[in-house]
# Entry
Amino acid sequence: MPNELASEPSGHALADLGAAKEAQTQFRHPVKSDGQRVWRLVRDCAPLDENSMYCNLLLCSHFAQTCIAAERNEELVGWISAYRPPEDKETIFVWQVAVSSAARGEGLGKKLLSELLACEGAFGAKYLKTTITKDNAASWRLFSSLAKSRLAPMRDEPWFDKNEDFGGQHDTEHLVTIGPL
Ligand SMILES: CC(C)(COP(=O)(O)OP(=O)(O)OC[C@H]1O[C@@H](n2cnc3c(N)ncnc32)[C@H](O)[C@@H]1OP(=O)(O)O)[C@@H](O)C(=O)NCCC(=O)NCCS
# Structure
Protein backbone atom coordinates (compact mmCIF):
# COMPACT_ATOMS: atom_id res chain seq x y z
CA MET A 1 0.00 0.00 0.00
CA PRO A 2 1.59 3.29 -1.03
CA ASN A 3 0.35 5.41 1.87
CA GLU A 4 0.69 3.14 4.89
CA LEU A 5 2.99 4.05 7.76
CA ALA A 6 4.45 1.53 10.15
CA SER A 7 1.58 0.42 12.39
CA GLU A 8 3.65 0.80 15.56
CA PRO A 9 4.96 4.36 15.89
CA SER A 10 8.38 4.77 17.47
CA GLY A 11 8.74 5.71 21.14
CA HIS A 12 9.90 9.16 20.02
CA ALA A 13 6.82 9.62 17.85
CA LEU A 14 4.52 8.66 20.70
CA ALA A 15 6.15 11.08 23.09
CA ASP A 16 5.70 14.18 20.93
CA LEU A 17 1.94 14.64 20.90
CA GLY A 18 -0.48 14.31 23.82
CA ALA A 19 -2.58 11.13 23.93
CA ALA A 20 -5.87 12.89 23.11
CA LYS A 21 -4.44 14.65 20.07
CA GLU A 22 -2.65 11.47 19.07
CA ALA A 23 -5.99 9.64 18.96
CA GLN A 24 -7.57 12.37 16.79
CA THR A 25 -4.72 12.56 14.29
CA GLN A 26 -3.95 10.20 11.44
CA PHE A 27 -0.48 10.15 9.92
CA ARG A 28 0.05 8.67 6.47
CA HIS A 29 2.04 9.01 3.31
CA PRO A 30 0.30 11.23 0.75
CA VAL A 31 -1.37 10.14 -2.46
CA LYS A 32 -1.81 12.11 -5.68
CA SER A 33 -5.24 13.39 -4.67
CA ASP A 34 -3.68 15.18 -1.66
CA GLY A 35 -1.69 17.52 -3.92
CA GLN A 36 -4.22 20.38 -3.97
CA ARG A 37 -4.76 20.36 -0.21
CA VAL A 38 -1.02 20.28 0.43
CA TRP A 39 -0.59 23.25 -1.90
CA ARG A 40 -3.26 25.20 0.06
CA LEU A 41 -1.75 24.36 3.46
CA VAL A 42 1.74 25.41 2.36
CA ARG A 43 0.34 28.61 0.81
CA ASP A 44 -1.29 29.42 4.17
CA CYS A 45 1.85 28.73 6.21
CA ALA A 46 4.02 31.83 5.80
CA PRO A 47 6.98 32.21 5.58
CA LEU A 48 7.14 29.01 3.51
CA ASP A 49 7.71 29.51 -0.20
CA GLU A 50 4.52 28.91 -2.13
CA ASN A 51 5.11 26.03 -4.53
CA SER A 52 3.48 25.37 -7.84
CA MET A 53 0.63 22.88 -7.56
CA TYR A 54 2.53 20.70 -10.01
CA CYS A 55 5.42 20.54 -7.55
CA ASN A 56 3.05 19.37 -4.80
CA LEU A 57 1.58 16.75 -7.10
CA LEU A 58 5.09 15.44 -7.76
CA LEU A 59 5.83 15.32 -4.02
CA CYS A 60 2.61 13.39 -3.41
CA SER A 61 3.51 10.94 -6.18
CA HIS A 62 7.24 10.36 -6.74
CA PHE A 63 8.29 11.42 -3.22
CA ALA A 64 5.31 10.05 -1.27
CA GLN A 65 7.42 7.57 0.72
CA THR A 66 9.38 10.42 2.31
CA CYS A 67 6.45 12.80 2.82
CA ILE A 68 3.83 12.63 5.56
CA ALA A 69 0.36 14.11 5.86
CA ALA A 70 -1.44 14.58 9.19
CA GLU A 71 -5.25 14.67 9.19
CA ARG A 72 -7.91 15.43 11.75
CA ASN A 73 -11.57 14.95 10.86
CA GLU A 74 -10.46 14.52 7.26
CA GLU A 75 -8.82 17.94 7.31
CA LEU A 76 -5.14 18.29 6.46
CA VAL A 77 -3.52 19.89 9.52
CA GLY A 78 0.12 19.00 9.00
CA TRP A 79 2.58 18.22 6.25
CA ILE A 80 6.22 17.37 5.90
CA SER A 81 8.06 16.98 2.60
CA ALA A 82 11.44 15.32 2.42
CA TYR A 83 13.61 13.24 0.11
CA ARG A 84 16.82 11.21 0.05
CA PRO A 85 19.43 13.27 -1.85
CA PRO A 86 20.71 10.99 -4.66
CA GLU A 87 24.38 11.83 -3.90
CA ASP A 88 24.03 11.56 -0.12
CA LYS A 89 22.47 8.23 0.80
CA GLU A 90 23.01 8.69 4.54
CA THR A 91 20.81 11.77 4.63
CA ILE A 92 17.13 12.54 4.71
CA PHE A 93 16.60 16.12 3.58
CA VAL A 94 13.53 17.90 4.95
CA TRP A 95 12.18 20.51 2.58
CA GLN A 96 9.05 21.94 4.23
CA VAL A 97 7.19 21.43 7.49
CA ALA A 98 3.74 23.02 7.70
CA VAL A 99 1.26 22.93 10.57
CA SER A 100 -2.07 24.75 10.20
CA SER A 101 -2.30 27.77 12.49
CA ALA A 102 -5.09 26.17 14.58
CA ALA A 103 -2.94 23.10 15.36
CA ARG A 104 0.35 24.81 16.29
CA GLY A 105 2.12 24.51 19.62
CA GLU A 106 0.75 21.02 20.37
CA GLY A 107 3.81 19.05 19.32
CA LEU A 108 2.48 18.22 15.86
CA GLY A 109 5.52 19.57 14.01
CA LYS A 110 7.83 17.47 16.13
CA LYS A 111 5.60 14.44 15.78
CA LEU A 112 5.70 14.79 11.98
CA LEU A 113 9.51 14.75 12.14
CA SER A 114 9.45 11.66 14.35
CA GLU A 115 7.02 9.89 12.03
CA LEU A 116 9.28 10.74 9.12
CA LEU A 117 12.38 9.35 10.83
CA ALA A 118 10.47 6.18 11.78
CA CYS A 119 9.12 5.46 8.31
CA GLU A 120 10.64 3.08 5.80
CA GLY A 121 11.58 5.91 3.43
CA ALA A 122 14.04 7.19 6.04
CA PHE A 123 15.58 3.77 6.68
CA GLY A 124 19.36 4.00 7.06
CA ALA A 125 19.46 7.79 7.31
CA LYS A 126 22.18 8.87 9.73
CA TYR A 127 21.65 12.57 9.21
CA LEU A 128 18.63 14.82 8.93
CA LYS A 129 19.32 17.98 6.97
CA THR A 130 17.17 21.01 6.30
CA THR A 131 17.57 24.72 5.63
CA ILE A 132 16.30 27.58 7.79
CA THR A 133 16.44 31.35 7.43
CA LYS A 134 17.87 33.15 10.45
CA ASP A 135 14.57 34.83 11.33
CA ASN A 136 12.40 31.68 11.52
CA ALA A 137 12.41 31.19 15.30
CA ALA A 138 9.73 28.49 15.28
CA SER A 139 11.69 26.40 12.81
CA TRP A 140 15.01 26.73 14.71
CA ARG A 141 13.25 25.69 17.88
CA LEU A 142 11.49 22.77 16.21
CA PHE A 143 14.70 21.29 14.83
CA SER A 144 16.81 22.01 17.92
CA SER A 145 14.13 20.34 20.03
CA LEU A 146 14.35 17.27 17.80
CA ALA A 147 18.17 17.21 18.08
CA LYS A 148 17.96 17.56 21.84
CA SER A 149 15.44 14.77 22.27
CA ARG A 150 17.59 12.46 20.09
CA LEU A 151 20.80 13.50 21.90
CA ALA A 152 22.19 14.30 18.44
CA PRO A 153 24.59 17.12 17.58
CA MET A 154 23.20 19.95 15.44
CA ARG A 155 25.27 22.36 13.36
CA ASP A 156 24.52 24.94 10.72
CA GLU A 157 26.30 26.94 8.04
CA PRO A 158 25.14 29.38 5.35
CA TRP A 159 24.23 27.50 2.19
CA PHE A 160 21.93 29.16 -0.36
CA ASP A 161 23.18 32.73 -0.23
CA LYS A 162 20.83 35.72 -0.44
CA ASN A 163 22.79 37.50 -3.17
CA GLU A 164 24.87 34.83 -4.86
CA ASP A 165 22.12 32.19 -5.12
CA PHE A 166 18.82 34.04 -4.68
CA GLY A 167 19.79 37.25 -6.51
CA GLY A 168 18.70 39.26 -3.47
CA GLN A 169 15.14 37.87 -3.65
CA HIS A 170 15.25 35.62 -0.56
CA ASP A 171 17.16 35.57 2.73
CA THR A 172 20.12 33.22 3.09
CA GLU A 173 19.10 29.65 3.88
CA HIS A 174 21.32 27.99 6.49
CA LEU A 175 22.01 24.30 6.05
CA VAL A 176 21.22 22.54 9.33
CA THR A 177 22.63 19.08 9.96
CA ILE A 178 21.39 16.91 12.80
CA GLY A 179 23.22 13.69 13.49
CA PRO A 180 24.53 11.13 13.63
CA LEU A 181 21.05 10.06 14.69
C1 LIG B 1 7.36 25.65 12.44
C2 LIG B 1 6.06 24.88 12.65
C3 LIG B 1 6.03 23.72 11.66
C4 LIG B 1 6.09 24.33 14.12
O1 LIG B 1 4.97 23.48 14.26
P1 LIG B 1 4.32 23.20 15.70
O2 LIG B 1 3.45 22.01 15.56
O3 LIG B 1 3.70 24.43 16.24
O4 LIG B 1 5.64 22.84 16.56
P2 LIG B 1 5.67 21.95 17.88
O5 LIG B 1 4.42 22.20 18.67
O6 LIG B 1 5.99 20.55 17.53
O7 LIG B 1 6.88 22.61 18.68
C5 LIG B 1 8.20 22.13 18.56
C6 LIG B 1 9.12 23.04 19.37
O8 LIG B 1 9.14 24.35 18.77
C7 LIG B 1 8.71 25.35 19.70
N1 LIG B 1 7.94 26.34 18.97
C8 LIG B 1 6.84 26.12 18.20
N2 LIG B 1 6.41 27.29 17.67
C9 LIG B 1 7.27 28.25 18.11
C10 LIG B 1 7.35 29.64 17.89
N3 LIG B 1 6.46 30.32 17.13
N4 LIG B 1 8.38 30.33 18.47
C11 LIG B 1 9.30 29.68 19.24
N5 LIG B 1 9.27 28.34 19.47
C12 LIG B 1 8.25 27.63 18.92
C13 LIG B 1 7.88 24.59 20.72
O9 LIG B 1 7.83 25.27 21.95
C14 LIG B 1 8.62 23.29 20.80
O10 LIG B 1 9.78 23.44 21.58
P3 LIG B 1 10.13 22.37 22.75
O11 LIG B 1 10.00 20.99 22.11
O12 LIG B 1 11.53 22.73 23.11
O13 LIG B 1 9.12 22.59 23.82
C15 LIG B 1 4.81 25.79 12.50
O14 LIG B 1 4.96 26.93 13.34
C16 LIG B 1 4.59 26.27 11.07
O15 LIG B 1 3.96 25.60 10.27
N6 LIG B 1 5.14 27.46 10.75
C17 LIG B 1 5.01 28.05 9.41
C18 LIG B 1 5.85 27.29 8.40
C19 LIG B 1 7.31 27.16 8.78
O16 LIG B 1 7.97 28.13 9.14
N7 LIG B 1 7.82 25.90 8.70
C20 LIG B 1 9.17 25.58 9.12
C21 LIG B 1 10.16 25.76 8.03
S1 LIG B 1 10.37 24.33 7.04
